[in-house]
Each structure stands twice: as C-alpha cells, then as structure tokens.
Amino acid sequence: MNKIKKLINERDINRRVKEISETLYDEYKDEEVVFICTLKGAVFFACDLLKKYKGDVRIEFLRVSSYSGKDSTGKIELNLSISKENIENKNVIILEDIVDTGTTLKFLKEYIGDMKPKSLIIVSLLDKKERRKVDIEADIVGFEIEDLFVVGYGLDYDQKYRNLPYIGVIE
Ligand code: 5GP
C-alpha cells in the first residue's frame, strides 16, 4: 500500500457527519425520508449518517460511474437504477461522496427529479469547488477541499483504499 497523507481525520469526519445528521433530522422530523446512497463512494458516509439519524428512513442505492483511475471520463453510466414508485411524492435526500466537475450531480438531480419527489436535496461529504465545470451545488457539504485526488472513507483509487477510516491523499 502506498503512503497516504491524512487530510481529514476520523474524529473530524464523525463530528461533521453527526452534525449533518442532526441538521437533516431538524428539517424533516416526523416525515419519512428516502435516503439514496450513491455506490460505491458514499457507502461509509451513508452508513455513519444513517446510524445517527433519529427519524424514519427508507434506503435506496444508485450506482453511477464516470471515473477511470484519477480521471473523470465526463460520461455518466448508470449501473443500478431505482424505480419511480420509491421516489414519487417522497422526501428524497441523495448522499454523495464528492462533487468534482458537477457532472454526476447534475445527472443525479435530473434523473431523480424526473421521478417527481415531494422534495429533493443533495448532501455531499466533500466538495472540490475549484474543479467545477457544471453550474451546480450540493445543498449541504461536509467539507470543502482543494483540488486534490482524495481516497479513504469510501473513496477509491482503482478500487483500493475505500476502507481507510480517514480521508487522505496518496503520496
Ligand atoms: P464529477 O461528476 O463531479 O466530476 O465526479 C463525481 C465523482 O467522481 C464522485 O462521485 C467520485 O466517485 C469521483 N471523484 C471525484 N473526485 C474524486 C477524488 O478526489 N477521489 C476519488 N476517489 N473519487 C473522486
């Protein structure tokens, strides 16, 4: 395994994830919420956030890909979809790992938006604002980071490093 330089430690991630979970609960309280976890990158974020969420939830998974190695191909592929009946007239929260160029986010917003949810917001653990090519923002962001290729806490480099409990950069 290559050496990884820590960028965001486990304690800071836990604290921020708890904060986001509480913010969302304050917003939705007694209403049922459908959380969509985007695979595979957001899986650790989604698990930790949902364990801390106090309200009623349903969980769905969506799999999209646009990256090969450290480069975005710019082309979104949908590898696992969701049926409309699970989204229509529901409060939906998409959980993303990172917003980079914004291409994936735009695709997700349109894809789920077309299924007519009652409400729709996007929560991303990380945001690389500098890299944006599409004019789109997540509604809630965990951490804004500089233009670095990060791994850990669900994020991979060619499928490796997802299991690191922190977020770091390959040295
Ligand atoms: P976008 O469509 O915004 O360019 O890219 C979003 C997707 O690219 C993310 O969901 C993630 O899978 C991948 N991605 C973007 N930046 C990084 C990064 O720094 N590290 C890793 N591991 N994946 C990234």
List the helices and strands and how they pair.
Layout: E1 4-8, H1 10-28, E2 33-39, H2 43-52, E3 57-68, E4 71-80, E5 91-99, H3 103-113, E6 119-127, E7 140-144, E8 150-151, E9 167-170
Parallel strand pairs: 2-3, 2-5, 5-6, 6-7
Antiparallel strand pairs: 1-9, 3-4, 8-9
Helix pairs in contact: 1-2
The structure holds guanosine-5'-monophosphate.
What is the typical, i.e. mean, pLDDT? 93
Oligomer: single chain
Tally of structural domains: 1
Just name the CATH architecture.
Answer: 3-Layer(aba) Sandwich
CATH class: Alpha Beta
Write down the secondary-structure element order.
Answer: EHEHEEEHEEEE
Query: What fold name goes in the CATH topology slot?
Result: Rossmann fold
Question: In percent, how much strand structure appears in the residues?
Answer: 35-45%
Please explain how this structure is put together:
This protein is an alpha/beta fold. The chain has a single domain (about 10-145), classed as 3-Layer(aba) Sandwich (Rossmann fold), CATH 3.40.50.2020. Helix content is about 25%, strand content about 35%. Strand 5, helix 3 and strand 6 (about 120-125) form a beta-alpha-beta unit. Helix 1 crosses helix 2. The chain binds guanosine-5'-monophosphate. Guanosine-5'-monophosphate binds near residues 41, 72, 96, 100 and 151.
Keywords for this entry:
171 residues; alpha/beta; Rossmann fold; three-stranded antiparallel beta sheet; 9 strands; 23% helix; globular; binds guanosine-5'-monophosphate
In short:
23% of the residues lie in helices and 37% in strands. The chain is α/β, with parallel strands linked by helices and 171 residues long. The mean pLDDT is 93.
